[in-house]
# Entry
Amino acid sequence: MIQLSADVAAILYTVSAILFILALRGLSSPETSRRGNYFGMIGIAIAIVTTVLVAGLGGQGLLLAGGGLAVGGVIGAIIARKIPMTDMPQLVAAFHSLVGLAAVLVALAAFFSPHSFGILGADGLMKAGSLLELSLGAGIGAITFTGSLIAFAKLNGNMSGSPILLPARHLINIALGVAFFFLVGMMMSTGGAEPWMMWALIGVTLILGFTLIIPIGGADMPVVVSMLNSYSGWAAAALGFTLGNLALIIVGALVGSSGAILSYIMCKGMNRSFISVILGGFGGDTAAAQGDRVERPFKRGSAEDAAFIMKNASKVIIVPGYGLAVAQAQHATREMADTLKEAGVDVAYAIHPVAGRMPGHMNVLLAEANVPYDEVFELEDINSEFANADVAFVIGANDVTNPAAKTDPQSPIAGMPILDVDKAATVLFVKRSLSPGYAGIDNDLFYEDNTMMLLSDAKKMVEEIIKAL
# Structure
């Protein structure tokens, strides 16, 4: 039986931490994301092997650890191969729920077997500091678990994407928050002698995860996904202190801080504060009013019309949105772009920070279709180019192209940075219908004089355009 010394373990944990940092760096760009994934995989493998060897497990322990890794690895590989890229947001939310559940289970294991974790004091009771770490890990993990399940249900269509506004929801959340901290204080003062307190704490935070996320509308789901990612990191970091595991502390801190930064970037992309997202209800009032929509005249076109306009254009900017993901039209879109480039048309792609249902959703889809990285631009890098474009070809990017963000101070998306597609000479908008987006409001762009609506499934319409070209 091999057992590593503390010094060797610390060196190996440091190596794995460096690899995690390199993984995050690599994942910041589609061009280096594959390398970033490799760094992360190697880093976590080193951390797991080191942890198993430090524990000095016997044959049975190694068998259990190896069996758990094998089962989890096989399930993960099967899911990764079968899940289409369009379902990636809900897959991420589902995985976050498992991280939260793992944190709760580890906290329970430490609470009910404190002698195994070295957290007992001289008086035979659990140390106050360890109880604080366990409580935070379990509480944040429980919030992450139920919150991620709600996010999954909303993203997967099992639950309405509209905000579900509970009566007195703010008072309920405040009461649950106070109850959580009260229970933490009681546990620390009693040394964890009353097990019911831990169960009550977990129950309170499970409910809190539900009440926090269910009022948040689908338009804010990118922020929710990154926020829950951050929560799972902090839960892991808190338990890392209890377990005395350096790798868990480092990984948790990296995940927690990067998720928090990403949440900030998403909120900035929607001109919303983090607190306003958590308090929920994006588009809640306006969505209810959509039944009274007034029919307005719009210009409807065909695939032949779109092909003629784009073939005679000098510059075309393609704006992908969730409609492209739902229809899985990324490969057809790249084929259309290649056909246009062969005809001498300059083609570029414009990505809004919150397009799709999670950060980077559109970038991943375009990368899957082998769209050249140098043709894909973020909002701040390409927005000024729309005024020089002959055509803005929008595929389902509804809220992020809505001029109401600039023209209507009362709009729920007022002030949100949008892609200025309306400044292009012609806007070709592919959408199944004129229905509002996740923010629950009508898009004024549909009715502009320079807009032609191509009402159809995105993949079918793009394929017809390719034939016409």
